[in-house]
Amino acid sequence: MGSKNNTASFRTRSPLSIFIVIVLCCFFYILGAWQRSGFGKGDSIASEITKQTDCNIVENLSFETHHNDVEIVAPSEPKAKKIKPCDVKYTDYTPCQEQDRAMTFPRENMIYRERHCPPEEEKLQCLIPAPKGYMTPFPWPKGRDYVHYANVPHKSLTVEKAVQNWVHFQGNVFKFPGGGTMFPQGADAYIDELASVIPIKDGTVRTALDTGCGVASWGAYLLKRNVLAMSFAPRDNHEAQVQFALERGVPAVIGVLGTIHLPYPSRAFDMAQCSRCLIPWTSNDGKYLMEVDRVLRPGGFWILSGPPINWKTYYQTWKRSKKDLQAEQNNIEELAESLCWEKKYEKGDIAIWRKKVNDKACQRKSASICKSRDADDVWYKEMDTCVTPFPEVTSTKEVAGGELKKFPARLFAVPPRIANSYVEGVSAESYQEDNKLWKKHVNAYKRINKLIGTTRYRNVMDMNSDLGGFAAALESPKSWVMNVVPTIAKNNLGVIYERGLIGIYHDWCEGFSTYPRTYDLIHANGVFSLYENKCNLEDILVEMDRILRPEGAVIIRDEVNVLNKVRKISGGMRWETKMMDHEDGPLIPEKILIAVKQYWVGSKGNRTSSDE
């Protein structure tokens, strides 16, 4: 009987219990909705917690310079293998242009000044020290004219080039008055004369090439006219000339016009110059001028100032005969005509030619046309004695390869290589989408590091540039970007130049053609995934450290499994690092590793200022 009564009681209470549960559920649902609406305290609390745990807010990682006023504190022992500092004798080490190795190669045609990288067993597995007293370079534009002596402690050019106003030594700084061998009174007046013939002012000319650049004063003074020059010179007896250029905040690389193609695509530059560069233009059947023609855009300009121009005035100074100099100039004139160049100007020390926009009105005499070869496939390829053909056109007025808009409009306009379907897999639509993506990425970077976009990071490198979206999103007079296209990546460097940006081909299994401490910010998108099975990732990181300035910053965007390997290695490199989520959230497998290189300098032996 008792069991029966209990069952009945349960049945009578069951509907009531269910009703109470439903009422409570409704109540809490309404309460939750009220709080989420913004009127409840719970919303502000949740918001505050979200802010405290935001993965895109960097804590304990400073991007400011400290070495002038803060004592260097030794880092704690990293979990990864500690990479030791190199001896101070390697302070200016350039792996592929070292003097001792260079002297084992033939001097003929400047072979010994070309790239000669060490074999695997001879690579340095150590970190290059900064010289004692190293300081953060002067901010732009002051940095154009002044360099700390402690950063580049080499005075030889102040003696060798004193009359030509290359560089003067004053107190503890070098001063660059803007002079050059062919413009001792200053680059501005020289450029003004060029601008009387060449449309420099209106954005028609944006990219320029300076062969044998010295300390790159021509490129330095073109920057205020919104012209971006790629300058190169060999590492030779003119000690540290390219190092001075980069320390000033001017684009430059170590390079020479020898037997190997220049590491630039065809039709890259609006303007090129040789200002007493001493390149023997008529030697080897004109091969060197043919290489300039390859990289010069249809409609582009070539400037020659120096021998043999104005030989009647200088033949005694140059210690050469009138007959020899006149013959040399005649040969240059004939060669230029065979390249489809038209002479536009000769006055005093300057002569200017213009490459025709296509070959319809060109009467080639003797130059042979290069056959069946990609004109952009140039890495370690020997130059041939042949002329790169113009892209085909349908009318005499059409610009071969496509006409470019004036800068800055060309920065985001669809480049001709894409518009004409020369780039496989890239359409006008996908190109514009890529631009939007990189604007989003760069905005995220600026939230992480507020110094990006300021003069603090003047010299910037993008190690895997693709279409140049990163550089385009960052474009500003305050900085410039060296766009690197890896030799194993898709070859889009021609697109980058058509945007009015500059760049270079490179294989990251080797050392880059620059001095140590020449870049303020390095961006690496997908680099380590690209090279993971090609070469040692540690070698790439050590090379990044070599070219990065003390207290410079690194941004690495890659898959999380690769970044974990990179972070482990960098733990032994005197870098402060932090892993960040993708800007779209933690579920995206692509992550961002940011790093700051610590300030430390070399001292006697192998110990450094930050050794314990």
UniProtKB/TrEMBL annotation:
The chain crosses the membrane at residues 16-34. The keyword Transmembrane helix applies. One of its GO terms (molecular function) is methyltransferase activity. Keywords: Glycoprotein, Golgi apparatus, Membrane, Methyltransferase, Signal-anchor, Transferase, Transmembrane, Transmembrane helix. SUPFAM superfamilies: S-adenosyl-L-methionine-dependent methyltransferases. GO terms for biological process: methylation. Its main location: membrane. It is a single-pass type II membrane protein; Single-pass membrane protein. It comes from the Eukaryota. One of its GO terms (cellular component) is endosome. Its EC number is 2.1.1.-. It is found in: Endomembrane system; Golgi apparatus membrane; Membrane. It is an enzyme of class 2 (transferase). Belongs to the methyltransferase superfamily. PANTHER family: METHYLTRANSFERASE PMT14-RELATED, SAM-DEPENDENT METHYLTRANSFERASE. This is Methyltransferase.
